[in-house]
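Quick review question:
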Protein backbone atom coordinates (compact mmCIF):
# COMPACT_ATOMS: atom_id res chain seq x y z
CA UNK A 1 0.00 0.00 0.00
CA UNK A 2 3.03 2.26 0.63
CA UNK A 3 3.45 3.47 -2.97
CA UNK A 4 -0.13 4.71 -3.09
CA UNK A 5 -0.05 6.36 0.31
CA UNK A 6 3.25 8.04 -0.49
CA UNK A 7 2.57 9.30 -4.01
CA UNK A 8 -1.16 9.42 -4.69
CA UNK A 9 -3.31 12.34 -3.64
CA UNK A 10 -5.46 12.03 -0.56
CA UNK A 11 -8.48 12.49 -2.81
CA UNK A 12 -8.39 8.76 -3.61
CA UNK A 13 -11.53 7.14 -2.28
CA UNK A 14 -12.80 3.66 -3.26
CA UNK A 15 -9.35 2.16 -2.71
CA UNK A 16 -9.65 3.04 0.98
CA UNK A 17 -12.54 0.58 1.37
CA UNK A 18 -10.67 -2.16 -0.50
CA UNK A 19 -7.01 -1.89 0.51
CA UNK A 20 -5.57 -4.57 -1.77
CA UNK A 21 -3.80 -4.31 -5.13
CA UNK A 22 -5.89 -5.70 -7.97
CA UNK A 23 -4.17 -7.17 -10.94
CA UNK A 24 -6.67 -8.99 -13.11
CA UNK A 25 -10.37 -9.08 -13.73
CA UNK A 26 -12.70 -11.29 -15.71
CA UNK A 27 -16.47 -11.16 -15.88
CA UNK A 28 -17.79 -10.51 -12.39
CA UNK A 29 -14.51 -11.24 -10.58
CA UNK A 30 -11.47 -9.27 -9.53
CA UNK A 31 -8.16 -10.87 -8.59
CA UNK A 32 -5.44 -9.35 -6.46
CA UNK A 33 -1.71 -9.49 -7.02
CA UNK A 34 -1.55 -12.28 -4.41
CA UNK A 35 -4.15 -14.30 -6.30
CA UNK A 36 -7.17 -13.75 -4.03
CA UNK A 37 -10.41 -13.50 -5.98
CA UNK A 38 -13.38 -11.28 -5.17
CA UNK A 39 -16.88 -11.09 -6.61
CA UNK A 40 -17.34 -7.54 -7.86
CA UNK A 41 -20.57 -5.94 -6.62
CA UNK A 42 -19.24 -2.44 -7.36
CA UNK A 43 -18.44 -2.94 -11.05
CA UNK A 44 -16.87 0.48 -11.52
CA UNK A 45 -19.94 2.12 -9.95
CA UNK A 46 -22.01 0.80 -12.84
CA UNK A 47 -19.39 1.11 -15.58
CA UNK A 48 -18.93 -2.62 -16.09
CA UNK A 49 -22.46 -3.77 -16.88
CA UNK A 50 -21.04 -6.32 -19.34
CA UNK A 51 -18.35 -7.40 -16.89
CA UNK A 52 -14.58 -7.05 -16.92
CA UNK A 53 -12.77 -7.76 -20.20
CA UNK A 54 -15.71 -9.34 -21.99
CA UNK A 55 -14.11 -11.65 -24.60
CA UNK A 56 -16.23 -10.39 -27.54
CA UNK A 57 -15.49 -6.73 -26.80
CA UNK A 58 -11.85 -7.48 -26.08
CA UNK A 59 -11.41 -9.23 -29.41
CA UNK A 60 -13.05 -6.34 -31.29
CA UNK A 61 -10.67 -3.90 -29.60
CA UNK A 62 -7.59 -6.08 -30.14
CA UNK A 63 -8.42 -6.47 -33.84
CA UNK A 64 -8.91 -2.72 -34.19
CA UNK A 65 -5.61 -1.88 -32.47
CA UNK A 66 -3.77 -4.59 -34.41
CA UNK A 67 -4.95 -3.01 -37.68
CA UNK A 68 -3.71 0.44 -36.58
CA UNK A 69 -7.23 1.79 -36.32
CA UNK A 70 -7.51 5.48 -35.36
CA UNK A 71 -6.98 5.91 -31.61
CA UNK A 72 -7.36 9.66 -31.37
CA UNK A 73 -8.74 11.92 -34.05
CA UNK A 74 -10.41 14.83 -32.24
CA UNK A 75 -13.95 14.72 -33.57
CA UNK A 76 -12.98 13.84 -37.14
CA UNK A 77 -14.97 11.27 -39.04
CA UNK A 78 -13.64 7.79 -38.40
CA UNK A 79 -14.92 4.41 -39.44
CA UNK A 80 -15.23 3.44 -35.78
CA UNK A 81 -17.47 6.45 -35.10
CA UNK A 82 -19.56 5.72 -38.17
CA UNK A 83 -20.11 2.14 -37.06
CA UNK A 84 -21.09 3.25 -33.57
CA UNK A 85 -23.54 5.88 -34.85
CA UNK A 86 -25.28 3.49 -37.20
CA UNK A 87 -25.30 0.59 -34.71
CA UNK A 88 -26.73 2.71 -31.89
CA UNK A 89 -29.37 4.08 -34.24
CA UNK A 90 -30.30 0.67 -35.64
CA UNK A 91 -30.41 -1.39 -32.42
CA UNK A 92 -31.18 1.16 -29.69
CA UNK A 93 -32.95 4.24 -31.05
CA UNK A 94 -35.00 2.94 -34.02
CA UNK A 95 -36.59 -0.07 -32.29
CA UNK A 96 -37.66 2.24 -29.45
CA UNK A 97 -39.06 4.79 -31.83
CA UNK A 98 -36.59 7.40 -30.57
CA UNK A 99 -35.44 10.21 -32.79
CA UNK A 100 -32.32 11.84 -31.36
CA UNK A 101 -28.97 13.14 -32.54
CA UNK A 102 -25.85 12.14 -30.64
CA UNK A 103 -23.42 14.64 -29.16
CA UNK A 104 -20.07 13.27 -28.02
CA UNK A 105 -18.70 15.25 -25.12
CA UNK A 106 -15.55 14.90 -23.06
CA UNK A 107 -15.35 11.29 -21.90
CA UNK A 108 -16.80 11.42 -18.39
CA UNK A 109 -20.36 11.59 -17.11
CA UNK A 110 -19.98 15.05 -15.70
CA UNK A 111 -18.92 16.29 -19.19
CA UNK A 112 -22.19 15.02 -20.64
CA UNK A 113 -24.18 16.69 -17.86
CA UNK A 114 -22.33 20.00 -18.38
CA UNK A 115 -23.11 19.90 -22.09
CA UNK A 116 -26.80 19.13 -21.49
CA UNK A 117 -27.20 21.93 -18.93
CA UNK A 118 -25.32 24.40 -21.10
CA UNK A 119 -27.43 23.59 -24.14
CA UNK A 120 -30.69 23.81 -22.16
CA UNK A 121 -29.69 27.28 -20.97
CA UNK A 122 -28.60 28.33 -24.45
CA UNK A 123 -31.77 27.12 -26.16
CA UNK A 124 -34.20 28.58 -23.59
CA UNK A 125 -32.26 31.70 -22.64
CA UNK A 126 -32.89 30.92 -18.94
CA UNK A 127 -30.39 30.23 -16.15
CA UNK A 128 -32.25 28.20 -13.60
CA UNK A 129 -32.25 24.39 -13.53
CA UNK A 130 -34.40 22.18 -11.32
CA UNK A 131 -32.62 19.22 -9.76
CA UNK A 132 -33.63 16.93 -6.95
CA UNK A 133 -32.76 16.06 -3.38
CA UNK A 134 -30.12 13.29 -3.25
CA UNK A 135 -29.48 13.61 -7.00
CA UNK A 136 -25.94 13.01 -8.26
CA UNK A 137 -24.79 14.46 -11.57
CA UNK A 138 -21.02 14.82 -11.30
CA UNK A 139 -18.32 16.94 -9.68
CA UNK A 140 -17.45 19.69 -12.18
CA UNK A 141 -18.99 23.00 -11.14
CA UNK A 142 -22.12 23.09 -13.31
CA UNK A 143 -23.01 19.45 -12.63
CA UNK A 144 -22.01 19.82 -8.98
CA UNK A 145 -24.52 22.64 -8.57
CA UNK A 146 -27.20 20.13 -9.58
CA UNK A 147 -25.77 17.46 -7.24
CA UNK A 148 -27.17 17.18 -3.71
CA UNK A 149 -24.30 15.49 -1.87
CA UNK A 150 -22.90 17.74 0.86
CA UNK A 151 -19.43 16.21 0.88
CA UNK A 152 -18.96 16.85 -2.84
CA UNK A 153 -20.62 20.27 -2.79
CA UNK A 154 -18.37 21.31 0.09
CA UNK A 155 -15.30 21.12 -2.15
CA UNK A 156 -16.66 23.47 -4.84
CA UNK A 157 -14.80 26.55 -3.63
CA UNK A 158 -17.25 28.84 -5.44
CA UNK A 159 -20.97 29.42 -4.98
CA UNK A 160 -23.05 26.72 -6.64
CA UNK A 161 -25.77 28.71 -8.31
CA UNK A 162 -28.61 28.67 -10.82
CA UNK A 163 -30.22 25.51 -9.50
CA UNK A 164 -33.51 25.17 -7.59
CA UNK A 165 -33.68 22.01 -5.50
CA UNK A 166 -36.99 20.15 -5.41
CA UNK A 167 -38.00 17.06 -3.40
CA UNK A 168 -37.54 13.79 -5.31
CA UNK A 169 -40.41 11.37 -5.97
CA UNK A 170 -40.81 9.78 -2.54
CA UNK A 171 -38.72 12.23 -0.53
CA UNK A 172 -41.56 12.84 1.95
CA UNK A 173 -42.91 9.29 1.70
CA UNK A 174 -45.61 7.93 -0.56
CA UNK A 175 -48.36 10.29 0.53
CA UNK A 176 -46.84 13.64 -0.43
CA UNK A 177 -47.26 14.59 -4.07
CA UNK A 178 -44.04 16.42 -4.89
CA UNK A 179 -45.25 17.14 -8.45
CA UNK A 180 -48.20 19.13 -7.08
CA UNK A 181 -45.75 20.99 -4.84
CA UNK A 182 -43.54 21.88 -7.82
CA UNK A 183 -46.53 22.86 -9.93
CA UNK A 184 -47.63 25.32 -7.27
CA UNK A 185 -44.14 26.80 -6.90
CA UNK A 186 -43.79 27.18 -10.67
CA UNK A 187 -47.25 28.69 -11.10
CA UNK A 188 -46.91 31.26 -8.31
CA UNK A 189 -45.01 34.24 -9.84
CA UNK A 190 -43.82 35.22 -6.37
CA UNK A 191 -42.73 31.77 -5.14
CA UNK A 192 -39.12 32.82 -5.63
CA UNK A 193 -38.41 29.98 -8.06
CA UNK A 194 -37.18 31.50 -11.32
CA UNK A 195 -38.58 29.91 -14.46
CA UNK A 196 -36.22 27.01 -15.19
CA UNK A 197 -34.54 26.09 -18.46
CA UNK A 198 -34.70 22.41 -17.61
CA UNK A 199 -35.26 19.69 -15.06
CA UNK A 200 -32.49 17.13 -14.62
CA UNK A 201 -33.41 13.85 -12.96
CA UNK A 202 -32.27 10.27 -12.40
CA UNK A 203 -35.06 7.70 -12.67
CA UNK A 204 -33.25 5.62 -10.04
CA UNK A 205 -30.85 7.66 -7.91
CA UNK A 206 -27.56 5.75 -8.05
CA UNK A 207 -25.36 7.61 -5.58
CA UNK A 208 -28.29 9.09 -3.65
CA UNK A 209 -29.41 5.79 -2.13
CA UNK A 210 -31.24 3.83 -4.86
CA UNK A 211 -34.42 5.86 -4.58
CA UNK A 212 -36.58 4.73 -7.49
CA UNK A 213 -39.20 7.02 -8.97
CA UNK A 214 -42.47 5.41 -9.97
CA UNK A 215 -43.55 5.44 -13.62
CA UNK A 216 -46.48 7.59 -12.58
CA UNK A 217 -44.24 10.22 -10.96
CA UNK A 218 -41.93 10.33 -13.98
CA UNK A 219 -44.89 10.72 -16.36
CA UNK A 220 -46.29 13.53 -14.21
CA UNK A 221 -42.87 15.16 -14.18
CA UNK A 222 -42.83 15.09 -17.97
CA UNK A 223 -46.28 16.71 -18.06
CA UNK A 224 -45.09 19.36 -15.61
CA UNK A 225 -42.13 20.07 -17.90
CA UNK A 226 -44.43 20.54 -20.89
CA UNK A 227 -46.81 22.75 -18.91
CA UNK A 228 -44.05 25.07 -17.68
CA UNK A 229 -41.95 24.84 -20.86
CA UNK A 230 -38.96 23.29 -19.13
CA UNK A 231 -36.74 20.79 -20.94
CA UNK A 232 -36.61 17.29 -19.45
CA UNK A 233 -33.09 15.90 -19.08
CA UNK A 234 -32.87 12.28 -17.95
CA UNK A 235 -29.47 11.53 -16.45
CA UNK A 236 -29.20 7.84 -17.35
CA UNK A 237 -25.46 7.65 -16.76
CA UNK A 238 -25.77 5.03 -14.03
CA UNK A 239 -29.29 3.62 -14.47
CA UNK A 240 -28.97 3.27 -18.25
CA UNK A 241 -27.29 0.66 -20.48
CA UNK A 242 -29.44 -2.18 -19.17
CA UNK A 243 -29.02 -1.74 -15.43
CA UNK A 244 -32.76 -1.67 -14.66
CA UNK A 245 -33.65 -4.41 -17.17
CA UNK A 246 -34.18 -2.21 -20.26
CA UNK A 247 -31.58 -0.22 -22.19
CA UNK A 248 -32.90 3.10 -20.84
CA UNK A 249 -34.22 3.24 -17.28
CA UNK A 250 -37.37 5.11 -18.38
CA UNK A 251 -38.13 2.98 -21.41
CA UNK A 252 -41.32 1.37 -20.12
CA UNK A 253 -42.66 4.62 -18.68
CA UNK A 254 -43.81 6.09 -21.98
CA UNK A 255 -41.96 9.42 -21.79
CA UNK A 256 -39.92 11.31 -24.38
CA UNK A 257 -37.09 13.18 -22.68
CA UNK A 258 -35.62 16.22 -24.45
CA UNK A 259 -32.09 15.11 -23.64
CA UNK A 260 -30.55 11.95 -22.21
CA UNK A 261 -27.05 11.73 -20.77
CA UNK A 262 -25.16 8.43 -21.01
CA UNK A 263 -21.68 7.42 -19.91
CA UNK A 264 -20.42 4.79 -17.41
CA UNK A 265 -21.35 1.50 -19.19
CA UNK A 266 -21.82 3.05 -22.62
CA UNK A 267 -18.41 1.90 -23.91
CA UNK A 268 -19.17 -1.54 -22.51
CA UNK A 269 -15.55 -2.13 -21.66
CA UNK A 270 -14.87 0.40 -18.95
CA UNK A 271 -13.34 2.87 -21.40
CA UNK A 272 -14.06 6.59 -20.87
CA UNK A 273 -16.96 7.60 -23.09
CA UNK A 274 -19.94 9.95 -22.76
CA UNK A 275 -22.76 11.11 -24.95
CA UNK A 276 -25.82 13.34 -24.89
CA UNK A 277 -28.86 12.37 -26.90
CA UNK A 278 -30.66 15.49 -28.14
CA UNK A 279 -34.04 15.99 -29.63
CA UNK A 280 -33.22 17.23 -33.16
CA UNK A 281 -34.77 20.70 -32.71
CA UNK A 282 -32.57 21.30 -29.68
CA UNK A 283 -29.35 20.72 -31.58
CA UNK A 284 -28.63 24.42 -31.84
CA UNK A 285 -24.90 24.26 -31.21
CA UNK A 286 -22.67 26.19 -33.57
CA UNK A 287 -19.69 24.14 -34.82
CA UNK A 288 -17.15 23.74 -32.03
CA UNK A 289 -19.14 25.91 -29.64
CA UNK A 290 -18.84 23.24 -26.96
CA UNK A 291 -15.41 21.80 -27.62
CA UNK A 292 -13.02 19.27 -26.10
CA UNK A 293 -9.96 17.28 -27.13
CA UNK A 294 -11.36 13.92 -26.12
CA UNK A 295 -14.84 14.06 -27.59
CA UNK A 296 -15.59 10.56 -28.76
CA UNK A 297 -13.06 7.91 -27.88
CA UNK A 298 -12.41 5.69 -30.90
CA UNK A 299 -11.54 2.63 -28.84
CA UNK A 300 -14.79 3.16 -26.95
CA UNK A 301 -16.68 3.48 -30.24
CA UNK A 302 -15.37 0.04 -31.16
CA UNK A 303 -16.28 -1.68 -27.89
CA UNK A 304 -19.61 0.18 -27.55
CA UNK A 305 -20.71 -0.88 -31.03
CA UNK A 306 -19.61 -4.47 -30.31
CA UNK A 307 -21.50 -4.44 -26.99
CA UNK A 308 -24.69 -3.18 -28.58
CA UNK A 309 -24.42 -5.70 -31.39
CA UNK A 310 -23.75 -8.54 -28.96
CA UNK A 311 -26.20 -7.75 -26.14
CA UNK A 312 -29.02 -5.71 -27.67
CA UNK A 313 -29.86 -7.45 -30.93
CA UNK A 314 -32.77 -9.25 -29.24
CA UNK A 315 -34.52 -9.47 -25.83
CA UNK A 316 -32.49 -12.31 -24.39
CA UNK A 317 -30.06 -10.15 -22.42
CA UNK A 318 -32.71 -7.75 -21.11
CA UNK A 319 -34.80 -10.72 -19.95
CA UNK A 320 -31.79 -12.25 -18.18
CA UNK A 321 -31.23 -8.94 -16.35
CA UNK A 322 -34.83 -8.96 -15.14
CA UNK A 323 -34.51 -12.57 -13.93
CA UNK A 324 -31.21 -11.92 -12.14
CA UNK A 325 -32.60 -8.74 -10.59
CA UNK A 326 -35.39 -10.82 -9.14
CA UNK A 327 -32.95 -13.45 -7.85
CA UNK A 328 -30.92 -10.75 -6.08
CA UNK A 329 -34.06 -9.11 -4.67
CA UNK A 330 -35.27 -12.50 -3.36
CA UNK A 331 -31.90 -13.07 -1.70
CA UNK A 332 -31.98 -9.61 -0.14
CA UNK A 333 -35.55 -9.98 1.09
CA UNK A 334 -34.51 -13.19 2.83
CA UNK A 335 -31.70 -11.32 4.58
CA UNK A 336 -34.10 -8.56 5.61
CA UNK A 337 -36.62 -11.05 7.03
CA UNK A 338 -33.89 -12.90 8.88
CA UNK A 339 -31.91 -10.06 10.46
CA UNK A 340 -34.05 -6.94 10.56
CA UNK A 341 -37.64 -7.09 9.38
CA UNK A 342 -38.19 -3.77 11.18
CA UNK A 343 -34.86 -2.06 10.56
CA UNK A 344 -33.74 -3.21 7.09
CA UNK A 345 -35.43 -2.90 3.71
CA UNK A 346 -34.70 -3.50 0.04
CA UNK A 347 -34.45 -0.49 -2.29
CA UNK A 348 -34.00 0.07 -6.02
CA UNK A 349 -35.03 -1.51 -9.30
CA UNK A 350 -33.72 -4.21 -11.66
CA UNK A 351 -30.05 -4.92 -10.95
CA UNK A 352 -29.70 -1.57 -9.23
CA UNK A 353 -30.74 -2.67 -5.77
CA UNK A 354 -29.50 -2.69 -2.22
CA UNK A 355 -30.39 -3.08 1.42
CA UNK A 356 -31.05 0.02 3.47
CA UNK A 357 -29.53 -0.18 6.96
CA UNK A 358 -30.40 1.86 10.05
CA UNK A 359 -27.26 4.00 9.61
CA UNK A 360 -24.00 4.43 7.71
CA UNK A 361 -21.86 2.72 10.36
CA UNK A 362 -23.91 -0.46 10.05
CA UNK A 363 -23.70 -0.43 6.25
CA UNK A 364 -19.94 0.23 6.38
CA UNK A 365 -19.42 -2.64 8.84
CA UNK A 366 -21.38 -4.97 6.56
CA UNK A 367 -19.30 -3.97 3.53
CA UNK A 368 -16.06 -4.51 5.50
CA UNK A 369 -17.20 -7.95 6.65
CA UNK A 370 -18.25 -8.87 3.09
CA UNK A 371 -14.91 -7.70 1.70
CA UNK A 372 -13.03 -9.88 4.17
CA UNK A 373 -15.02 -12.81 2.78
CA UNK A 374 -14.47 -12.11 -0.90
CA UNK A 375 -17.10 -9.58 -1.97
CA UNK A 376 -16.40 -6.03 -3.17
CA UNK A 377 -19.49 -4.01 -2.29
CA UNK A 378 -20.01 -0.31 -1.49
CA UNK A 379 -22.56 1.94 0.16
CA UNK A 380 -24.73 4.71 -1.22
CA UNK A 381 -27.24 7.18 0.14
CA UNK A 382 -27.47 10.45 2.09
CA UNK A 383 -25.88 8.78 5.13
CA UNK A 384 -24.09 6.04 3.15
CA UNK A 385 -26.66 3.73 4.74
CA UNK A 386 -27.52 1.57 1.73
CA UNK A 387 -25.47 -1.56 0.94
CA UNK A 388 -25.57 -1.20 -2.82
CA UNK A 389 -25.30 -4.17 -5.16
CA UNK A 390 -24.22 -3.10 -8.61
CA UNK A 391 -22.79 -6.32 -10.00
CA UNK A 392 -22.05 -6.84 -13.69
CA UNK A 393 -25.24 -7.79 -15.51
CA UNK A 394 -23.48 -10.84 -16.98
CA UNK A 395 -22.88 -12.33 -13.50
CA UNK A 396 -23.80 -16.03 -13.19
CA UNK A 397 -26.52 -17.35 -10.89
CA UNK A 398 -23.85 -19.25 -8.93
CA UNK A 399 -21.92 -16.03 -8.35
CA UNK A 400 -25.10 -14.25 -7.25
CA UNK A 401 -25.87 -17.02 -4.78
CA UNK A 402 -22.29 -17.01 -3.47
CA UNK A 403 -22.40 -13.21 -3.02
CA UNK A 404 -25.76 -13.46 -1.25
CA UNK A 405 -24.36 -16.00 1.18
CA UNK A 406 -21.40 -13.68 1.89
CA UNK A 407 -23.84 -10.82 2.51
CA UNK A 408 -26.01 -13.06 4.68
CA UNK A 409 -23.01 -13.85 6.90
CA UNK A 410 -22.08 -10.17 7.06
CA UNK A 411 -25.58 -9.14 8.14
CA UNK A 412 -25.68 -12.01 10.64
CA UNK A 413 -22.43 -10.87 12.26
CA UNK A 414 -23.06 -7.12 12.23
CA UNK A 415 -26.73 -7.20 13.22
CA UNK A 416 -26.09 -9.62 16.09
CA UNK A 417 -23.17 -7.44 17.30
CA UNK A 418 -25.56 -4.50 17.34
CA UNK A 419 -28.25 -6.40 19.21
CA UNK A 420 -25.63 -7.42 21.79
CA UNK A 421 -24.43 -3.81 22.22
CA UNK A 422 -27.98 -2.57 22.64
CA UNK A 423 -28.77 -5.27 25.21
CA UNK A 424 -25.69 -4.49 27.35
C1 LIG B 1 -21.39 8.78 -12.12
C2 LIG B 1 -22.49 9.70 -12.46
C3 LIG B 1 -22.26 10.95 -13.02
C4 LIG B 1 -20.87 11.52 -13.21
O1 LIG B 1 -20.07 10.73 -14.01
P1 LIG B 1 -18.47 10.90 -13.91
O2 LIG B 1 -17.94 10.03 -15.00
O3 LIG B 1 -18.10 10.41 -12.54
O4 LIG B 1 -18.16 12.32 -14.09
C5 LIG B 1 -23.35 11.72 -13.38
N1 LIG B 1 -24.60 11.29 -13.19
C6 LIG B 1 -24.86 10.07 -12.65
C7 LIG B 1 -26.27 9.64 -12.49
C8 LIG B 1 -23.82 9.26 -12.25
O5 LIG B 1 -24.07 8.07 -11.68
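Suggested answer, residue by residue:
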Amino acid sequence: MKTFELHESGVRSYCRSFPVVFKQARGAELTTREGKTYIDFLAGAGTLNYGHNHPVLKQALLDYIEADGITHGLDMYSEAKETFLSTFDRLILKPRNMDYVMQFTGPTGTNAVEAALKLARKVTGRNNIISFTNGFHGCSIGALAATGNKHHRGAAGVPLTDVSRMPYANYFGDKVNTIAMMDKLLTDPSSGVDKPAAVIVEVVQGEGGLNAASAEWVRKLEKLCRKHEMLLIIDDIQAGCGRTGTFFSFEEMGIKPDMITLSKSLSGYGLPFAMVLLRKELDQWKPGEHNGTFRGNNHAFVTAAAAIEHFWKDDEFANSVKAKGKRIADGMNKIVRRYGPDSLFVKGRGMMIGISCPDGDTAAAICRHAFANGLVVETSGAHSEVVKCLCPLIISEEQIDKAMSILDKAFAAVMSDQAATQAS
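Why it works: Residues 146 and 418 are 37 Å apart (CA to CA). The two ends are 38 Å apart (CA to CA).
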